[in-house]
Amino acid sequence: MEKSIRKYFPVFVLPTLIAFTIGFIVPFLYGIFLSFCKFTTVTDWKWTGIQNYTRIFFVNGKLDTTFLHSLWYTALFTIVSMIVINVLAFAIAMLLTKGIRGTNLFRTVFFMPNLIGGIVLSYIWLMIFNAVLQNFSKTIVSTQWYAFWGMIIVVCWQQIGYMMIIYIAGINNISGDILEAAQIDGANSWQRLKYVVLPSLMPTIGTCTFLTLTNGFKLFDQNLALTGGNPGKMSQLLALNIYDTMYGTTGWQGVGQAKAVIFFILVAVLALIQNKLTSSKEA
Q1: Facing residues of 62 across strands?
Q2: How many CB atoms lie within 10 A of CB 140?
Q3: 8 A C-beta contact, residue 113 and residue 121
Q4: Which of 13, 119, 161, 185 is the 20 to 30 Å CA partner of 235?
Q5: Angle 229-232-238 (CA atoms, 0-180°, nearest 5)?
Q6: What is the pTM of this model?
């Protein structure tokens, strides 16, 4: 039986490999190639070397801080959202695994925002924010920091429920015998959390950290619908900055593609670092 499976293994793998190559590998490599070209469509390219990469930071010989601002703004947003989402999701998961009444109802309520599209959810919150802020003669885009915390609230509202479900699954997989043994040995609630629960949840924590890290860096829909990058592109996250460069400025498609390549490298490096750190903690 095993020899038969090995014999026909290429037959089953080949269609998936072809689809993956056509749908991902080829466009990805062609995208890298286009980042070194000037183009308006993918067929009228003209090789320009590293000019697109220099134009990311310098325009007409002057430093353009737009991309750099989006970079550090996105990094700050990602760090804050990652911490808030994981801390609150873990705390809620711990509460909902204590056997309190209405646990299933609470799980459903917390998870429901994740089922709503990012743009729809952002427009709902946009009306709420502006309705509250108009009492102070402000709007969500009055400053970049109003926009920042507005996006933090929206993203946390949407993602906490999803991460909560993952944490609940991880907590339920912890052996009750281990917790009971720790309690018999005299460990209090904090000690059980620190020395039993958290070490046992490292794979789960790694998964949730990876998801919130990448989601924070890739955030686009909520940024577009909630702030549109205003005021004056000061609340643009990287994904929206790339989109604005590609489709908002004529002749800058190559620069937008170069930004996309840098964006991919940043997300890939962060994901690898996060995975390495989590793996070392698990060991």
Answers
A1: 59
A2: 23
A3: yes
A4: 161
A5: 40
A6: 0.87
